[in-house]
Amino acid sequence: MMDRGSGYQYSITDDVDFTGWNNMKVIPELTDSVVLEQIQKIQRTNQIKQSDKLEGKYNLTIEMETGVGKTYTYIKTMYELNKHYGWSKFIVVVPSIAIREGVYKSFQMTQEHFAEEYGKKIRFFIYNSAQLTEIDRFASDSSINVMIINSQAFNAKGKDARRIYMKLDEFRSRRPIDIIAKTNPIVIIDEPQSVEGKQTKKNLEEFNPLMTLRYSATHKSDSIYNMVYRLDAMEAYNKKLVKKISVKGITETGNTATTGYVYLQSVNLSKADPTATIQFDMKGATGLKKVTKTVGIGFNLYDNSGELQEYKDGYVIKFIDGRDDSIEFLNGTKLFAGDVIGKYDEDQLRRIQIRETILSHIERERQLFSKGIKVLSLFFIDEVKNYREYDEAGNQTNGKYADMFEEEYKDVLDNMQREIGDEEYFKYLESITAESTHAGYFSIDKKGRMTDSKLSDKKEKTSDDIDAYDLIMKNKELLLERDPNRSPVRFIFSHSALREGWDNPNVFQICTLKQSGSDVRKRQEVGRGLRLCVNQDGERMDANVLGEDVHNINVLTVIASESYDQFAKGLQTEIAEAVADRPRKVEKSLFVGRTIPDNNGVDYIIDEDMADDIQYSLIVEKYIDSKGQITEKFYEDEKADNLRFSEAVEAYAKGIIEILKSVYDAKAMMPEDARKNNIELHVDQNKMAMPEFKELWNKINSKSVYVVDFDSDELVKKSIAELDAKLRVAKIRITVQSGSMEKIDSKAQIASGDAMKLEKTKEYDSTAAVSSSVTYDLVGKLVEATGLTRKDIVRILTGIQPSVFEQFKYNPEEFIIKAGNLINEQKATAIIEHITYNVVDEKYDTDIFTEPTIKGKLGTNAMKAQRHLYDHIVYDSTNEKEFAEKLDTCEDVAVYVKLPNGFYINTPVGHYNPDWAISFKKGTVKHIYFIAETKGSMDTMQLKKMESSKIHCAREHFKAISSDSVKYDVVHTYEDLMDLLK
Question: pLDDT averaged over the chain?
Answer without folding.
Answer: 82
